[in-house]
Amino acid sequence: MKKNKEKIILFLAIIIFLITFLLYDFLIKQSSRVVFCDVGQGDGTFININNDKQILIDGGPDNKFIGCVGKYMPYFDHKIEYVIVSHPDKDHFVGIIEVLKRYDVEYVIVNGDKSDIPEYEEFLFLAKDKIIKPEDNDFLKFLQKGGDSKDSNNNSLVFKFIYNNKSILFTGDAPTEVEEKFLDKDLKSDILKLGHHGSKTSSSKSFLEAVAPELTIISVGADNKYGHPSYLIIKRLENLGIKYLRTDDLGDIEIKLEN
């Protein structure tokens, strides 16, 4: 009798666990959201669209990004529709290598730059049959698709992600001279992923005024050797009344994309 009772309790516990697990996956993990992952000194963003599509933007300097992807990816989804690498600096692409090994990635978008970094050769090898040119679609609008500068930062992909009337502008490590090229374009965005980890070489006053974001995200490593984000940029944001959040302070920064 006692053994039967224990079996019933164990069975009910398993049922409750499975229901909780499925509800969490359905209500939380499948919801539309963007997560600016804490990847240390680098960029890595995870976007989920109603458990229908996932978009990854950059991947940080090491395998920390794969942990963020696994944490926020819906349990029963092993496919990632788009991976975007803004430019081939190690702090933007290395974490994508592990993503390509573990997930079924449909398309990879790059800026076309060459690089002699060994890890980038591995990245290109894994992505070779998946690479497509940057083109606008229902979610992505490209302002810069690459360039011919010797400085890869200048060739960073610059684009908007747009969903549910919410827009997020990504600029990679593009410096102020690249930002100036777009001042006559429609830059207005709800959120700006601050360029070059808050370096003083990006985020000019005129650019910030043109974007007019409600919020900026600074993806940066704690106590990094570059001094990012720059004090000048922080003061500029404060003087313009623009709110900012930092991954070195908050860890992963999650923003819902639901109406």
Annotate the secondary structure layout.
Layout: H1 2-29, E1 33-36, E2 44-49, E3 53-59, H2 64-72, E4 79-84, H3 90-102, E5 104-109, H4 118-127, E6 131-132, E7 140-144, E8 158-163, E9 166-170, H5 176-179, E10 191-193, H6 205-211, E11 215-218, H7 231-239, E12 243-246, H8 247-250, E13 253-256
Parallel strand pairs: 3-4, 4-5, 5-6, 9-10, 10-11, 11-12
Antiparallel strand pairs: 1-2, 1-13, 2-3, 7-8, 8-9
Molecular structure report:
The chain is α/β, with parallel strands linked by helices. It has two domains: 1-30; 31-250, Metallo-beta-lactamase, Chain A (4-Layer Sandwich), CATH 3.60.15. It is built from eight helices and 13 strands. It has helices at 2-29, 64-72, 90-102, 118-127, 176-179, 205-211, 231-239, 247-250; strands at residues 33-36, 44-49, 53-59, 79-84, 104-109, 131-132, 140-144, 158-163, 166-170, 191-193, 215-218, 243-246, 253-256. Strands 6-5-4-3-2-1-13 form a seven-stranded mixed beta sheet. A six-stranded mixed beta sheet has the order 7-8-9-10-11-12. Helix 3 (90-102) packs parallel to helix 4 (118-127). The radius of gyration is 20 Å and the shape is globular. The mean pLDDT is 91.
